Amino acid sequence: xxxxxxxxxxxxxxxxxxxxxxxxxxxxxxxxxxxxxxxxxxxxxxxxxxxxxxxxxxxxxxxxxxxxxxxxxxxxxxxxxxxxxxxxxxxxxxxxxxxxxxxxxxxxxxxxxxxxxxxxxxxxxxxxxxxxxxxxxxxxxxxxxxxxxxxxxxxxxxxxxxxxxxxxxxxxxxxxxxxxxxxxxxxxxxxxxxxxxxxxxxxxxxxxxxxxxxxxxxxxxxxxxxxxxx
Length: 230
Ligand code: Y39
Ligand code: FE
Ligand code: FE
Ligand code: FE
Prior knowledge:
two-stranded antiparallel ribbon, mainly alpha, 8 helices
């Protein structure tokens, strides 16, 4: 049991908490595994950036190990089958894009959408995490900002040539993120992570990223609300 600043009490060892954690922890472990694979694929697609991308992929596999330790620390077995199904739509879209050599779509899915989702989730989790998981997650979230930055820098440098593909990839993939958030909202609530806070943080990260790449405020409003009612 832990007393938080706002007086919220969370029993990290209750069956209710551990049941929700078995899915959220699995999502994070599976997400880190897929991020590892996605950066290896991106390294093949962008040979000029190979060393950076391989470095990012190694960070993702360290993240996975850290979150596996968080589950073990709470005596929770992650529900990896659930997590694979949770990521399948985004993962399939990434694989199709990679097979077609659509590197802009791959970067939008992994380095913008998934990284912003991770940053939002980790930022909201840190204040309500157990002490062990908090330390791990604080280290991880710093890395995720650098992954998002990689995508921003590349897409900014190639903005005019990427714009149309970014619009289409956003249209196809952002609604999937809102569905994923809805699927995880009840479990997140058990961990004291509010859906509204997750949506707000995601919107801020994603909007900032689009702005850094070169989109106008008007474009950002249109792009970032796409499929929000899904
Ligand atoms: O780049 C990364 O490391 C991202 C793969 C990790 C994804 C994390 C996804 C977090 C969603 C958790 C939802 C909890 C409410
Ligand atoms: Fe990561
Ligand atoms: Fe990452
Ligand atoms: Fe609540």
